[in-house]
Task: inverse folding
């Protein structure tokens, strides 16, 4: 189905899962009955996120803890030392089944930076679950819409837009400059230049090598220097992750499958329940199968498989982690025209020593890199929201080549120390320094006429057509009572989703 159908709810207030404030998390929400991957890609590039079918966008100028959309350029991602330690620890465990002496200590230090398993945004609940996003869909009855009948009734009116993945994504000039700098970096940068008066400081590695050579010379032994791979030959993320050998004691199998409500199993719920109780101290009475189904299995995104897209297509997927034959973790992700977007991750707490939350993030970056080799535009990894006012959520900004979305101009900006200092001073920031820079998809009231409204089970009209149909006496009386508020809501909706989406998605008005 080529349509996105949304029911806009307007402003929403809820408890904040970060500062624990009551009714201070402010934003707007809508229910998506069905949504194309292209439309959701454009929504998250305007600061929206989904939890199941519920889509929400924080009002950063009013909310207690501003949410900034963050993404990582997977093609320019660089492994840190801590990332390598986690991968090596996993590979060691798979190889011999043993836990290292320092595993618990290392795991403790890593979780202080990044709480395991909480690398995604999830369903919000009023009792809170640690530091995850807390956004719950309002208790509004859903409308009874027959999507199949609607699709058949509008078969001839299908959009002739290009398939997802063939359009070039909007890129900020600052992003291009930074990426080109990263790609052209050499070990002899200005910081270590030998042109100055002071020679560069020796690294510990070089000092150890010199001491070893000195000992060999003192013993009358010939100097032997190991030929280790140069920096340019350093192993890739894929090589680090896929270091399994046939004789390994354990086998880790990661299966990527399309998500749908029928794939739910009791095994997955038992894993989710164990995770919530152990890691988040959740209330056992709240842990029901329907809750897991609602935000991990139900998705408005419809699986689409264009010829020039990824092998499995665009839509919602689960990465299932099997250790031998045991399900130990599940990552919920969306594969979209320009990115892999993280939704949620839960795992068996018995394997916390493997830092599965961080490990899954690296696996998802590897997935982006693999997909980018087939679909060049699909090269970003979206981590959800960066909440600088919550120290425990700053771990997301530690992935190299990360960018934040300007909440006003909707341009991307490298997450630099300068931006961090600005956020330290004021939790709300406009990242685009050009005061004249505006949202290129800005919606104005004059754009109202082309907003698409779904008015019944079989048809939709443009707003101007709807207004003309409503000029009879009965409609005039009705509009006199409620029309002004409805008009204001549509304008608000248009400003939040932007002009192209307001002219493409169907605003439910039944």
Result:
């Amino acid at each position: 189905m080529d349509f996105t159908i949304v029911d806009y709810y307007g402003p929403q207030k809820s408890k904040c899962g970060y500062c624990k404030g009551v009714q201070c998390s402010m934003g707007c929400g809508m229910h998506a009955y069905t949504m194309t991957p292209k439309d959701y890609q454009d929504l998250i590039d305007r600061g929206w996120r989904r939890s199941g079918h519920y889509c929400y966008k924080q009002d950063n100028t009013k909310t207690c803890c501003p949410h900034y959309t963050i993404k990582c350029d997977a093609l320019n991602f660089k492994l840190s030392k801590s990332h390598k330690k986690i991968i090596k620890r996993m590979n060691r465990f798979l190889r011999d089944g043993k836990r290292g002496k320092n595993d618990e200590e290392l795991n403790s230090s890593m979780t202080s930076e990044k709480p395991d398993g909480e690398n995604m945004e999830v369903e919000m609940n009023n009792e809170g679950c640690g530091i995850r996003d807390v956004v719950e869909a309002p208790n509004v009855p859903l409308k009874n819409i027959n999507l199949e009948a609607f699709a058949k009734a509008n078969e001839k009116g299908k959009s002739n837009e290009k398939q997802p993945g063939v359009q070039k994504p909007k890129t900020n000039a600052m992003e291009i400059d930074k990426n080109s700098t990263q790609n052209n970096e050499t070990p002899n940068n200005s910081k270590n230049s030998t042109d100055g008066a002071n020679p560069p400081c020796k690294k510990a590695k070089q000092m150890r090598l010199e001491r070893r050579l000195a000992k060999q010379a003192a013993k009358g032994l010939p100097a032997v220097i190991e030929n280790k791979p140069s920096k340019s030959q350093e192993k890739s993320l894929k090589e680090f992750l896929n270091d399994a050998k046939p004789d390994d004691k354990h086998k880790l199998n990661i299966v990527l499958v399309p998500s749908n409500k029928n794939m739910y199993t009791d095994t997955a719920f038992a894993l989710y329940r164990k995770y919530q109780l152990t890691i988040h101290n959740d209330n056992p009475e709240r842990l029901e199968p329907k809750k897991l189904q609602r935000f991990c299995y139900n998705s408005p995104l419809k699986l689409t498989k264009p010829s020039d897209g990824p092998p499995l297509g665009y839509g919602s997927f689960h990465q299932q982690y099997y250790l031998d034959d045991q399900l130990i973790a599940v990552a919920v992700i969306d594969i979209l025209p320009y990115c892999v977007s993280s939704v949620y991750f839960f795992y068996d707490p018995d394997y916390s020593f493997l830092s599965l939350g961080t490990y899954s993030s690296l696996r998802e970056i590897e997935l982006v890199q693999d997909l980018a080799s087939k679909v060049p535009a699909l090269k970003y990894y979206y981590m959800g929201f960066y909440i600088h006012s919550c120290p425990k959520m700053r771990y997301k900004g530690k992935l190299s080549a990360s960018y934040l979305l300007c909440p006003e101009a909707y341009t991307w900006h490298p997450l630099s120390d300068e931006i961090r200092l600005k956020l330290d001073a004021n939790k709300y920031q406009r990242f685009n320094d050009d005061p004249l820079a505006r949202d290129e998809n800005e919606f104005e009231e004059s754009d109202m006429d082309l907003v698409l409204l779904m008015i019944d089970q079989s048809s939709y009209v443009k707003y101007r057509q709807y207004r003309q149909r409503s000029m009879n006496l009965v409609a005039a009386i009705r509009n006199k009572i409620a029309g002004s508020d409805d008009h204001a809501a549509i304008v608000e909706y248009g400003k939040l989703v932007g002009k192209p989406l307001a002219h493409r998605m169907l605003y439910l008005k039944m």
